[in-house]
Structures are given as structure tokens and as C-alpha cells.
Amino acid sequence: MREILIIAGEASGDLHGAGVAEQLRALRPGVSLVGMGGERMAAAGVQLFERAEGVVGFVEVLRHLPAHLRLLRTVKAHLRSGRVGLIILIDYPGFNLRVARAARDAGVPVLYYITPQVWAWKPGRVKLMAEVIAKAAVILPFEESLLREAGIDTTFVGHPLLDRAQSLPSQMEARQRLGLPTDRQVLALFPGSRAQEIERHVHAFEAVAHALQRRRPGLEVVVSVAPTIQLDPARLPFPMVRAQSFDVLRAADVALCKSGTTTLEAAVAGCPCAVVYKTSRITYAIAKRLVRIPHIGLLNVVAGREVAPEFVQDAFTTPAVADALDPLFDADGAPRQRMLEGMAEIRRLLGAPGAASRVAAMALDMLDARGAS
């Protein structure tokens, strides 16, 4: 039987790719899995021919263009080998849409899991997606009808983070696991999962944390560090926890989150938060012209309204963010209760656990259909 090629280009894609790989091996133990990803995919049984780490932003992508072109040549050669029966692409649209075009040219069907966010920007990508994607597995509820209207065979599979959140610890249990005090309020910092995000956020996150500690003596601060990041403790001088984001969110009273999937994790964990983001001025100027939605935090995008306050670029100042976070520590306060109600609504919208198993079943059906033909 031909192999399944899985392509993921950053930490979150590696996590989701590993989930699909585990389910593929559970459903069909002898399946051959190869791909591009990270440690999690390798541990899940994917034979990696390339390890990859993602970048974001226009300026940042240009700096990494030679590496991307080299990776693309490697993937194209693999697609032309005749060994690939199906390719699963995970997120990472700037690179993976080029791979999808190459797969079409090589006659390899494409299952795209976590599709490009055409509802946010670059709507012109929909036409290309319709040409090169055989099936799409989407993780946000409104994406299914949007892509189906464009002629793409699309299934809403639910959000994969729900698989990781089926048995969340209590706040007390989470604090005991992490060695945090049980008698203090806790602020969690999520500065990002990419090196350039850390560079732009670390000083501002530290400033907000210290401002809140001055307002709330005894406030404990903990930093959630992505598994792909090396963060110097001197730059963010608080206890650090690696690769346990849900435990950190359950342990915390309030979180400060870089925009992205972490904001949805906060909603699922029921941890009130503020959403922030800074990028280069060139990238921000371009994005302002292209982005088509009013929110950057995924929890707000799913809700269709501002559940958590957002502070982007120059609006991301220490006093403004501290003012937004401070009342969220009050357990019975109206701001915290309103946000928790909004987060409960978001959890309902995200569907049911089992996204990875649904994607794996779709992939095997596609592989078998190709074999039969």
C-alpha cells in the first residue's frame, strides 16, 4: 500500500499532525506514514524526512524564503516518487498551498486539515483551494459552509484542542501538578510559539506582569513556554512551564495571551484573558490593508463578538492591558462573569471531541478509494 505523506510546518501543526498519525495507526496499524514536522509527529510514528519550524509575517517569511524553497523541492521530489497515495496538509498555508499544487500535478489527492483562514484575509486563495484540494477538514464551525459554497468538499470535524481537554484538572489539582501556591492569585503569560513572537512580546509581557504585581501584592506569575522555544529566564524572570498549556490555564486565575489557538484554549479551560499581538511595522501596515475581520483573537472570531479584550500593535501598552486584566481577578465581579459566560458559548460552538479520529477516517477512505480506482 502507498504511504500517507503528512506536512506540518510549525509547533501547532506538529501537534495536530501527531494526533492524526496516532489515529491512523490505531485504525490501520500497518499504514506507512512519512512527512515533515517535529518531535511529536516523529514520536507518533511518522518517518520524518525533514524537520520544520514555522514563521509568520511578510518580512519574516521573506527572510526564510531560501529554506522554504529548499523544502518545497524536497517535498516535490517525494511526490514524484510514486510512493505517495495521499497527502495530508496541516495549516501553514503559504507553504502548503504550493505543496497542494505540486500534489495535484503529481496526481496525488490532497486532504487539507486546518485550512487557510480565507475568512480573515487573502480570499483569492479560495479559487486555488478549489482547484487543488480533494477534501477539506475544517475546525471552525462557520468554515464548512464558506468552503462548500466555493465548491470544496468540506467537513467540519470539530476543534482538535477538545481532544486534549476531555479531562481537565481542577484549579487546585493543576497548581499542585505545577508546584504553584494554592493560596495566591496566579497570572499566566503566553507570549507565543515562534521565536520572532517572543522577541516582540517578551518585554511587554514582563511589564504588564510587574504592573499587576504592584496592584495585587503576592500575585504569582507563571510563563507557558512552547516546546519549540528556548526562552532565557533572565528575559522573562518568572517560573516557566513547558508544553502544558491546559494545566497552566487551569491553574491560573487570569491569562495574558498572544493571539492564536491559545485564546481558544483559554476559552475551553475557562480562564479569563486578554489578547495581544505585536509584529513588525511593515507587516502590520500590510495586514491592516488585507485583514477582513474585526477581531484577531480566535475566541472572539468564533464568538462573532469581543468576548476578551484585544490590544494590537500600538494599543498594546502596559497601562491599558493591566487595566483590562485587573478586574478579571475578582471572582464575583461582573467583568469576569461576563467573560466566563462568553467562553462557555465558545466551547459549545467548537463541536465535539474526536477531530483527529475523524480526519484519520477521511484519510483512509481517500487512500482506499484511490487504491480501488
How would you characterize the overall build of this protein?
The structure is a single chain. With 373 residues, the protein is α/β, with parallel strands linked by helices. It has 2 domains: 3-158 and 354-372, 3-Layer(aba) Sandwich (Rossmann fold); 164-349, Glycogen Phosphorylase B (Rossmann fold), CATH 3.40.50. Helices cover 47% and strands 16% of the residues. It is built from 16 helices and 13 strands. It has a 7-stranded parallel β-sheet, with helices on both faces. Helix 4 runs parallel beside helix 5 (93-106), helix 9 (195-215) crosses helix 14 (318-325) and helix 10 (245-251) packs across helix 11. The longest helix has 21 residues, at 195-215. The chain is elongated. Mean pLDDT is 89; it is low at 55-62.
Show the helix and strand layout.
Layout: E1 3-8, H1 11-27, E2 33-37, H2 39-43, E3 47-51, H3 58-63, H4 65-79, E4 84-90, H5 93-106, E5 110-113, H6 125-132, E6 135-138, H7 143-149, E7 154-156, H8 171-178, E8 186-190, H9 195-215, E9 220-225, E10 240-242, H10 245-251, E11 254-258, H11 261-269, E12 273-277, H12 281-290, H13 298-303, E13 310-312, H14 318-325, H15 334-349, H16 355-372
Parallel strand pairs: 1-2, 1-4, 2-3, 4-5, 5-6, 6-7, 8-9, 8-11, 9-10, 11-12, 12-13
Helix pairs in contact: 1-16, 4-5, 5-6, 8-10, 9-14, 10-11, 11-15
User: Any idea what the CATH architecture of the largest domain is?
Assistant: 3-Layer(aba) Sandwich
CATH topology label of the largest domain: Rossmann fold
Element-by-element helix/strand order? EHEHEHHEHEHEHEHEHEEHEHEHHEHHH
Main sheet characteristics: 7 strands, parallel
Derived structural class: alpha/beta
Mean pLDDT: 89
Overall morphology = elongated
> Radius of gyration, rounded?
21 Å
What is the helix fraction of residues, given as a range? 40-55%
- The CATH homology group name of the largest domain: Glycogen Phosphorylase B
**Count of DSSP-assigned helices:** 16
The total tally of domains equals 2
Give start-end ranges of low-pLDDT stretches: 55-62
Strand residue content? 15-25%
End-to-end Cα distance, whole Å, is 13 Å
Enumerate the strands of the largest sheet in spatial order, edge to edge or round the barrel: 3-2-1-4-5-6-7
Quaternary state, please?
A: single chain
